[in-house]
What does this fold into?
Amino acid sequence: MDSWLASNLENVAIALSPCCGCSVANTERDVNLPGTAAVIDVLEKLLAVLYPGCHGKAPVSHESCHHHLKETLQEIVEELYDQTHRSFEYACNKVKCIQCGDCKEKARQSVMALMDGLPGIRNMLQEDIQAAYEGDPAARSTMEIVMSYPGLYAITVHRIAHALYRQGVHLIPRVMSEHAHSKTGIDIHPGATIGAGFFIDHGTGVVIGETCTIGKRVKLYQGVTLGALSFAKDDTGALVKGVKRHPDVEDKVVIYAGATILGGDTVIGHDSVIGGNVWLIHSVPPGSKVYNQTPSPVIKPSGQ
Amino acid sequence: MDSWLASNLENVAIALSPCCGCSVANTERDVNLPGTAAVIDVLEKLLAVLYPGCHGKAPVSHESCHHHLKETLQEIVEELYDQTHRSFEYACNKVKCIQCGDCKEKARQSVMALMDGLPGIRNMLQEDIQAAYEGDPAARSTMEIVMSYPGLYAITVHRIAHALYRQGVHLIPRVMSEHAHSKTGIDIHPGATIGAGFFIDHGTGVVIGETCTIGKRVKLYQGVTLGALSFAKDDTGALVKGVKRHPDVEDKVVIYAGATILGGDTVIGHDSVIGGNVWLIHSVPPGSKVYNQTPSPVIKPSGQ
Amino acid sequence: MDSWLASNLENVAIALSPCCGCSVANTERDVNLPGTAAVIDVLEKLLAVLYPGCHGKAPVSHESCHHHLKETLQEIVEELYDQTHRSFEYACNKVKCIQCGDCKEKARQSVMALMDGLPGIRNMLQEDIQAAYEGDPAARSTMEIVMSYPGLYAITVHRIAHALYRQGVHLIPRVMSEHAHSKTGIDIHPGATIGAGFFIDHGTGVVIGETCTIGKRVKLYQGVTLGALSFAKDDTGALVKGVKRHPDVEDKVVIYAGATILGGDTVIGHDSVIGGNVWLIHSVPPGSKVYNQTPSPVIKPSGQ
It folds into this structure.
């Protein structure tokens, strides 16, 4: 390969050099984003304070637990402040803002809001854990849920990402939620609003869109989509960003595997049950039971 | 952020401190669980003895292979004994048992059963590899299957996890199976009983429940659910744990993508073929062919 | 466990020792494959030159970017040459070829073709990024797509894997594509041919078969299968490998979530729209709109 290195390496490197508007590189110039690995590092520290000793190699000693919490919280604050600061500056720069003295302040506010909100997030997660324990006959202990359930992992990351999203931070929570999607197959946009006592069983293939709202004690199974029906376009034909386009699911609804519920005007009334594989694009009143009147499949006996 | 660190850090750390019954922390007190990262370490060592040289950076030298096997097996024994011991003690403690002298013995028995069973597990895996090679026209070599097929990864982890589950170990096999679920999108509960020559193609979205039994030379495609139809509740309204609630699939059955088969009384007779997206909640006799009589979709030509 | 180690360790190690034809081990003898971890290392370096500074911990400095590209490209060339060389020798050995002097030359040609093709791959990826930005109302910047969208990750890995596949390298691109499958839930066989401006939204459960061809500016949603209808068998009953068995999708087609399109003779004409959950096993002309005439699900109001 020596001849290729001598003759072509330089040219390929030049051809791959990022230009100003090519949007594929995060190179240090004026303002820059954190790399995805740095964001995931902070996320793992957040998991380590929410569930001490559960996801590492060994338990945290009882005596050192308070020290572990303080030390890890301090690292999170410092790293996340730097990341959100860069992220606000980057977004600011994107829209040609010149006067950006408040990016530091916005970063400070965002990080403080998340940190001060952590005890409240943990209270919600305890309700989520309890809902999983009560909802799954296979669960033998709440610790099994903390250590192995993908649904709990996904909602934990979501509750963190959503807190940042509400502060106007965008890229960092998206990197976090896609990390959870990668690990669990559960794709929850950081914008979705989800009440306490939420349980997703199995979870692979679940999609929950940005403008969804979900009430308390809702239970979903694998492959459920809470999505958009169609996308509004502006006069130029470009998609309009930011409009309400995903459904509302009220308290104590159960949605079985593979059901698809679409549209920003669709409301699933509280205490409803939506059957497996149902396709629903309009609202149903509280207490509804919705299921497919599936014609039985054809069964040909042996030899026919 | 210095003012936040000075004023609020201590309070947030106190608010996040695990209390006795909050079930979110694994802190060293009397008995403790291994962390999930430690369990996954042992799992990767088990893969390294079942498939030497395949999943690391380089092949194992032929001369050192026996030494590599012995050394890795010894590490597995020591680490897994510690982990199962803690896991039994933890479960024991949970049900307020005081007299726990036999936790060590139970851990010893469990680890020995797994280790002595490894050659038998590898024989089954060789049948699984052969089934994948014969069942997938895209497979060019059996080594391609070992190195890249998610279905083989999932069944390998399952055969290990199931061996521990049968010894009464619960949390450790669940952490292993959810690690495989995370990597492959295939969710097999460690309790499921699965015969040799098992092949899952593509695999994303497959769910196989705790009380399933699956015969020999069965083939599944992506998105197949072998699940529960409904959950029995006791007098207090709580779910009854441990009852048979998932189907039995007999030898040489093929189940195509997206099929859903539910219920503890459902038996799919041997040599049956279940078509894509079929929804089946009752038994079918051996040799059945089951498919949806799908009405053709509506096709609107261009301009209509 | 000491007694087990003294009495049984040796026997289990012997029982697990790989034999010549057992196909479960990659042990250094004459020729050998790279381990999967080594292949994934090279893949991550390729991502680092295509998206500098995006996936690591920090941005790449603007001044050092050219140096970073050259250095990383050189590492890729050296490692990938070694890996493809081993891979050709291994395949060669498998079919009992004795005279293998050209394996080095084939490896050299393959690596040069990939490296010289990288700038062209990056141009296609920029069209993919633009398609994602225009196709998803939730996307706020193109950098969000680079850093977090699983669809872009999967098509990036595919474009690399496909370039190697076209050079006759088989195992290495399969390990790469299954790594992307593991991270994203999107399973694209390296053999599939996919045009520029390709966008997969959400993505979990997507399967794209080896002999698919997909035109320009095609958009897929989660759970779409472009698969085989049935497999041809030879006189001995073994599957015939290598025949065309997956569909062709022409330019500017949109395929909604959960649709299944099967068969090597199936052609989806350009500018067609295929609705959610449609099951299609024959061709449709350009501009078709295909959807299920789903009977509305049964809705039982509360109390019934």
